[in-house]
């Protein structure tokens, strides 16, 4: 289901950059993109004063949360502070209960945790405060090494840039790669440092650097996904032993070469389904799968739908 009305719930003494992230992604009118109704909400009434002393005039109160399809808490003043007031937490719980998607960016995860929306779920927050989140809310499965966690109706992200990744991911999963890429291009940020759908947790992929054999190998692999690529092939290209390559790869990406390759193949198939009229069988082979039958379960596992259904929603007209 799409979303158009977005409530950005801000608290006093929050960092300015994090507060601006969802407004930067959803607030600007862009050709070809949906027109989102972004409502800046003062959770505590009156102007919102940032940690730099800048006063922001938020024209909406907590009642705007009642009408939103998407509710975003961009951050929190400090995780050691006492939780937000009960009326703010109640508004978040009621929004979730009626079916709105609720998001916590960076330290906003602590607000969702205080509202009880993360009990029994995996969640992400800034790596520096991940141990504190785990100790304060032991029922939450804290993922300290990921950019964001998508649980479908509740999503959380890591630090400042992770909030951008998560907002672009929300656009991508709802409106497709093309719209998300257009927004990323206008913001001059990477369109897809991370991705996936409900229940999928992704890791950042390092950008290739001159003289960095691992980064150059990842770039080469992305250009050759239609080939038969194995971990031995990649380690040989990087001129490393298999053991050294595995260790370096996990340190850089937080995942294994096999998992990374599989995810990149599905992403490539996703783009081909959006931008070409190639039969699904050909899309599968161009993405490195032996057949459409081999592609289908991996595609469904990551995106929740079959390749054919995805094309019907996001493919070229």
List keywords for this structure.
2 domains; globular; Arc Repressor Mutant, subunit A; Rossmann fold; 12% strand; 317 residues; alpha/beta; two-stranded antiparallel sheet; single chain; 11 strands
What is the name of the CATH class of the largest domain?
A: Alpha Beta
CATH topology of the largest domain: the name is: Rossmann fold
Query: Percent of residues in beta strands?
Result: 5-15%
How many structural domains are formed by the residues? Answer: 2
Arithmetic mean pLDDT: 87
Order of helices and strands: EHEEEEHEHEHEEEHHEHHHHHHH
CATH superfamily of the largest domain: Class I glutamine amidotransferase (GATase) domain
Class inferred from helices and paired strands: alpha/beta
Range of helix content? 40-55%
Uncertain stretches of 5 or more adjacent residues: 194-208
What about the largest sheet? 7 strands, mixed
Provide a count of the helices. 13
């Amino acid at each position: 289901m799409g979303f158009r009305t977005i409530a950005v719930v801000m608290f006093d003494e929050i960092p300015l950059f994090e507060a601006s992230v969802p407004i930067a992604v959803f607030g600007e009118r862009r050709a070809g993109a949906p027109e989102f109704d972004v409502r800046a909400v003062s959770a505590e009434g009156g102007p919102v004063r940032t940690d730099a002393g800048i006063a922001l005039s938020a024209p909406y109160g907590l009642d705007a949360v009642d009408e939103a399809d998407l509710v975003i808490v961009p951050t929190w003043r400090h995780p050691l502070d006492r939780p937000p007031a009960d009326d703010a937490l109640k508004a978040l719980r009621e929004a979730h209960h009626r079916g709105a998607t609720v998001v916590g960016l960076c330290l906003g995860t602590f607000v969702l945790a205080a509202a009880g929306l993360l009990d029994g779920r995996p969640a992400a927050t800034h790596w520096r405060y991940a141990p504190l989140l785990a100790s304060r809310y032991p029922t939450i499965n804290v993922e300290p090494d990921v950019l964001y966690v998508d649980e479908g109706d509740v999503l959380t992200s890591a630090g400042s840039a992770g909030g951008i990744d998560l907002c672009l991911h929300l656009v991508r999963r709802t409106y497709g790669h093309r719209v998300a890429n257009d927004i990323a291009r206008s913001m001059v940020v990477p369109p897809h440092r991370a991705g996936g759908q409900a229940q999928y947790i992704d890791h950042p992929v390092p950008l290739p650097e001159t003289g960095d054999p691992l980064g150059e190998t990842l770039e080469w692999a992305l250009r050759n996904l239609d080939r038969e690529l194995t971990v031995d092939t990649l380690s040989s290209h990087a001129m490393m032993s298999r053991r050294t390559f595995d260790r370096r790869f996990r340190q850089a990406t937080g995942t294994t070469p096999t998992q990374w390759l599989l995810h990149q193949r599905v992403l490539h198939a996703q783009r081909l389904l959006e931008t070409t009229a190639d039969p699904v069988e050909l899309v599968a082979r161009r993405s490195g799968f032996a057949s459409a039958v081999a592609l289908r379960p991996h595609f469904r596992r990551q995106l929740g739908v079959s390749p054919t259904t995805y094309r019907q929603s996001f493919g070229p007209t």
